[in-house]
Amino acid sequence: MNPEFLHKLAELVPQVEGFIYPNEIEIHWSILIVLYPYLTGLVAGAFILASLVKVFTVKEVQPVYRLSLLTALAFLLIAPLPLLLHLGNPLRSYEIFLTPNLSSAMAMFGFVYAWYLMVVLLLEIWFDYRKDLITWANESKFPMNFVYRILSLFSKDLTDEAIAFDKKAIRVITIIGIPSAFLLHGYVGFIFGSVKANPWWSSVLIPVVFLFSAIVSGIAMVLLLYMIITPLRGKPLDMPCLDRIASFLFYAVIVDFTLEGLDFIHRLYESEESIKILSKLVMNKLFVSLVIIQVLLGMLVPLFSMAAAKAFRFNEELRKLSYFVAAILIQLGIFATRWNIVVGGQLFSKSFLGLTAYKMEVMGLEGLLVGIAVLIMPFCVLAVLLKLMSPWKTAEEHAAGG
Amino acid sequence: MKKLPEQVKRLAAVFVIFLSSVLLIRAYAVPAALKDTDIHRRTAVERETARRPVYAGYTACRDCHDDVFTSRKKGYHRNLSCETCHGPGQKHADDPEATKPIVPRERSFCPVCHTYDPSRPTGFPQVNPSTHNPLKPCITCHNPHNPEPPEAPHECSACHGEIAGMKGLSSHALLDCTVCHTTPEGHKLTPRAVMPSKPEDREFCGRCHRKGAEEKDAPKVDLATHGEKYLCWQCHYPHLPEGMK
């Protein structure tokens, strides 16, 4: 046997409780697979926030419209990276498009992803920015004007008719986009929910739970970014906008909490043969990450802090603080949610008789450092996007004009 | 019908280029076998069957190695094909003088199957190679074609099982009991009445262990100084000499 593997096993074996099959001792879906649903969730959530402006015409949220679109794009571009790293062979990944396997849910990821990236997100961003791209192409100097020209696909038409068409197109795309965003993250939930051999995952509610936690995390992420970037630019925060986002966040968290509670009660009441090992799992291995971080810190405390902001009519500073804290805690909580699903589902034996442990590497390809790097990358992409296609110019024109 | 807006044409161009390049690649660059939905990579089967076999199958070995074949057939390794251990043997079977198969005599070979591994079925004979008699090739004690665990002469282990078991795994494993104990037949019938001999002096062990002794596997010590005047077995247990008393 591979001596390296033996060494690793020797570390793990003492942590195994009860009986476990040999191939379950070591966990195979590691931190990278935790990151994948986390990142896609942020995409879906940020997009839903953007669509509030266009489809449901929530005027107050306009200042973060473009920011949410770019956030969604930045996270979407990085979302497949953890999968590529985990699977290896990145140079062969395009093959899932060339030889589609229609009966494999995992192999369909390429198409769900491509649809969302190409048909929804890039199109919407392109239509929204087309006018600005043309203007910037005319205004900037050598290399940049060329870049903008390419980005605008050499389009030049600035007539009112064309602009009106852009607006209409955006609306249509957003309407297609909402079910697509649901599809994207519902799909990620489906991958887990459809594994019928794993009672921790197998549940029809999982796609819906994933979806709402996605919405929660995406909204919270945009809220955070907005609250951090705006002071850095030396601009005041738009309080009505913040209040509005926070109240959406509040309701989304309530729905998410309810759904998860429903799932929990459902499992308890059904009380299938797996219930004993699952309760052991929750009380032993996942106690901190599930009960403390996910539920208490990630849901109840933010709910309480946002509710308090409403009920006691906090002043602006206090409201900002309470939103900020809530948004950070929610990120933490949603990350813990992903962790609990992905890692939790592998911690117990499918014989229902024992538990194992997850030892994260630090250095390796599936290790902590790579995980942190993948987590930082979307923010770097976002920084480039913000530099290249500033969302603020028109947003402020908008505020000034309307 | 109204004219298509300019920007839609541009976008359409991008999509057409993208889609048609995907379709073109799929049509021309992807081999047909990959697209076959009935049997994935049918050509792989053809490619493999076109190869010359490198394995002869264990029945082929019987023609010339009848003795090994029959001894393996009744042993614990009866279900292992010869080529599992000796490697592909077609060439050797065609022309035995020209090519010789691998003969895995080294100690690291057998643990491939016999190292302790929790995923092996219960009852499968497993050992820990770092405590199971270190340093000696497995085949010094086990016949690879009929791997009975070595046993002390039945006559002695029937009554001295513990000693026999301990010696069997010691560095004295290959020494018969009778090398050190001359045992009259009577001992087995009336053991207490007729006792075997026991080594009596340092010279006895010196036969193999003194400097210049003939036994070449035995490590050598200077009899004059090593262990002073004490009997050797006051420090070394003779049935497990590597463990100190």
Tell me briefly what this model is.
Chain A has 402 residues and is an all-alpha fold. Chain A is built from 16 helices and two strands. Chain A folds into two domains: 29-194 and 361-391, no CATH class; 237-358, no CATH class.
Question: Topology, please?
Answer:
The complex is a heterodimer of chains A (402) and B (245).
Chain A: H1 3-12, E1 17-18, H2 31-54, H3 65-78, H4 80-87, H5 95-98, H6 109-139, H7 142-151, H8 160-193, H9 205-232, H10 239-270, H11 275-283, H12 287-311, H13 316-342, H14 344-347, E2 354-355, H15 368-388, H16 392-401
Antiparallel strand pairs in A: 1-2
Helix pairs in contact in A: 2-3, 2-4, 2-8, 2-9, 2-13, 2-15, 3-6, 3-9, 3-15, 6-7, 6-8, 8-9, 9-10, 9-13, 10-12, 10-13, 12-13
Chain B: H1 6-29, H2 32-35, H3 42-49, H4 58-62, H5 66-73, H6 82-86, H7 90-94, H8 111-114, H9 154-157, H10 161-168, H11 177-180, H12 186-189, H13 202-209
